[in-house]
Amino acid sequence: MDVGYYAATCPDAAATVRQAMELQFYNDRTIAPAIIRMLFHDCFVRGCDASVMIVPTAGRSSERVAIPNQTLRGFNIVNRVKKVLESACPGAVSCADTLALMARDSVALLGGAAYDVPLGRRDGLQSNPWEVDLPAPFARLDDALGAFAARGFSAEETVVLFGAHTVGATRCSHFRYRLAHPDGTMDEALRRDMAEACGLAGGDLPPGDDPTAFLDQDTPFAIDNACYGQMIGNRSLLQLDQEAATHPATAGHVAYYAASPDAFVRRFSEAMAKLAAVGVLEGDAGEVRKVCSAYNK
Questions:
Q1: Binding site for Ca(2+), residues?
Q2: What domains can you pick out in the chain, each with its CATH number?
Q3: CB 281 within 8 A of CB 121
Q4: Phi and psi (nearest 5°) for 285?
Q5: Which of 70, 91, 155, 172 supports an S-S bond with 198, CB 3.0-4.6 Å?
Q6: Residue 28: count of CB within 10 angstroms of its CB
Q7: Buried b (16+ CB within 10 A) or exposed e, 127-159
Q8: Residue-wise over 52-87: b if at least 16 C-beta within 10 A, else e?
Q9: What is the mean pLDDT of the chain?
Q10: Sorting pLDDT into bands at 50, 70 and 90, what band is 136?
């Protein structure tokens, strides 16, 4: 892969993606965290090959139906950007590269550090729901560390990528058990606030309703180190994040980034660049899809 991969075939690809993301962001800031999350879900399964974007058909399932992927957002935005690229440069820019560029621009729009994205990914030819094995929000930290290590990430890099929880939101179902059965690891004021927001304090939520809450209650649309201070102060919603503050393999890194805002912003972009290079298809492998939601015919 190379930053200038499309210099001859689609020289304005990166600028086109950036312009589209800027427009979308100013209409809806929540799309940037959603795109970052989509990249993670894509790259953790079969590598960064846009397999998560395939829409299932009557005869063929896909990663989209797996439970962790059912709450992903932004597929329509990726398809819209790809359509613009396809109009300008037919058959040139892959969906995997489109998503990687959109994630890079999302980081920048949220105040993160700019970083280069080597290009040349190809789109995958398989998308299987049974292969989706992402660390759950309520997983043990040791299991999550193992999953990240299997994809080449150290404990320090894993803590840095947990920093993505400085933006975006999560559903109450991912942490409601911590509200109903307090164990002393969540700040009591936060627990009471979330119990009310999630319908555990006598609220009248419709049956089956699953509200969302910002992961970072202070700066939910800024890539900063606030989430690490929240981990240390027992103000993390997710058990996985909270455990990172005290686990022997991660506590030191959490403390370091809680005290080092500039270092975190720099390292987060470096870790995102590494994430976007996990298990990529190159050369003649895979294909360059015309439409991100379906294999070429």
A1: 42, 45, 47, 49, 51, 63, 166, 216, 219, 224
A2: 12-134 (1.10.520.10), 141-272 (1.10.420.10)
A3: yes
A4: -70, 150
A5: 172
A6: 12
A7: bbbeebebbebebebeebbebbeeeebebbbbb
A8: bbbeeeeeeebbbebebbeebebbebbbebbebbbe
A9: 94
A10: confident
Inform me whether the pLDDT recorded for 90 exceeds 70: yes
Coil/strand/helix, residue 76: helix
The structure's pTM equals: 0.94
Element (H, E) at 148: helix 141-149
- Cα 227 to Cα 133: distance, rounded to the nearest angstrom: 25
Q: Crossing angle for the helix pair 75-88 and 95-109, nearest 10 degrees? A: 120
Average pLDDT over residues 197-203: 71
Q: Which residues are annotated as a binding site for heme b?
A: 165
Binding site per annotation, positions? 42, 45, 47, 49, 51, 63, 135, 165-166, 216, 219, 224
Confidence of residue 208 (pLDDT cuts 50, 70, 90): low
Query: Residues marked as binding for substrate?
Result: 135
Q: Catalytic annotation on 41? A: yes
Q: Which residue is catalytic, options 41, 174, 247, 253? A: 41
